[in-house]
Amino acid sequence: MNRQRGKNQEGGKDGGRPKSRFAVAPENTNTYSFELASRSGAVLFVLAASLLVFALVCGAWYMVKGSWGLGTLIAATLAALVVPAGIHIAQQWERVVVLRLGSFSRVKGPGIFFTVPLVESCTLRVDTRIRTTPFGAEETLTADLVPLNVNAVLFWHVWDAKLACMEVADFASAIELAAQTALRDAIGRASVAQVAIRRQQLDKELQGILSEKVAPWGITILSVEIRDILVPKELQDVMSLEAQAEQRKKARIILTEAEQDISEMLAEISDTYAEHNHSLQLRMMHLLYESVRETGGTVVIPSDFTEAFRDISPSDLGKILGP
């Protein structure tokens, strides 16, 4: 009984209790492993500076007092510990926001810079390189009530580290949510055909909306690009039939216009041939020649036997036939 009760208690803690559908997932970050630059050089530089300050304090104490003691080690250690809080190195693409007693002081970087320990603090390191943020809208209804899945990518960068630090708490997440909201609004105002055809116009519209929204944050939207538009399978078949019908309609219209042009040309040609009979005969001979030129065939034209003797006089005919 005790063993069974223990198993039931353990199962209730781990496997017996069903997991909630709304479990909190770990927060995603926009920093990838290949983006993390090595800071070993900066760490070694600060360590070397700390050792140098430690040695200088010990040397100065010895020059003043003539000996070393416990006070020398304590003073040198405190001075060495203060160095990392006052010396900082920023990468070429980084800007560091410095606060002085809680108020904005300046933006430093790139390179080495100094702060006053216990008075100034480095609040935020901002990456000013161009960043890419993928976002999308799943099952968003268009103006004609068609659910679409649209994927896009956003290119942006921070141009003012002060505004990015002071105006918004997490500017990367804020930009992603703003882009997703703007995309949903743009899809809801257009039909499925407009969304599929007007991709460039949709890109420019989203870029304008986002640029206006994030400009107070010190951020510039470089471009927005729609990567993929997924239409439901049933609607794809219907749109395919509609497109085929539209193409057939265009083909018939073009054929009708061509026949109309041909009929007008034939009417003009018939008027010309009506006035010039010899031109019509020459045209008939030309068509006849064209019909047998490629095949090399023979054309037999039926005619009256007496037509061959129409231009021969009776006297000449008697000479030909003889006595």
What would you note in describing this structure?
The protein has 323 residues and is α+β, with helices and mostly antiparallel strands. Among the domains are: 93 residues, no CATH class; 105 residues, 2-Layer Sandwich (Tetrahydropterin Synthase, Chain A), CATH 3.30.479.30. It is 52% helix and 20% strand. It is built from ten helices and eight strands. Strands 3-2-5 form a three-stranded antiparallel β-sheet. α5 packs across α7.
Features:
single chain, 8 strands, 3-stranded antiparallel sheet, 52% helix, elongated, alpha+beta, Tetrahydropterin Synthase, Chain A, 323 residues
Q: Predict the CATH topology of the domain at 131-235.
A: Tetrahydropterin Synthase, Chain A
Q: In sequence order, what are the helices and strands, one letter per element? A: HHHEEEEEEEHHHHEHHH
Number of helices: 10
Describe the main β-sheet briefly.
3 strands, antiparallel
Report the CATH C-level class of the domain at 131-235: Alpha Beta
What general outline do the C-alpha atoms trace?
A: elongated
Mean pLDDT: 78
In CATH, the architecture of the domain at 131-235 is: 2-Layer Sandwich
Kindly name the structural category. Answer: alpha+beta
Number of strands: 8
Question: What is the topology?
Answer:
Layout: H1 2-13, H2 40-65, H3 70-86, E1 87-90, E2 94-100, E3 103-108, E4 111-114, E5 120-127, E6 131-141, E7 147-158, H4 161-166, H5 171-188, H6 192-197, H7 199-214, E8 219-230, H8 233-275, H9 277-293, H10 314-321
Antiparallel strand pairs: 1-4, 2-3, 2-5, 6-7, 7-8
Helix pairs in contact: 2-3, 5-7, 8-9
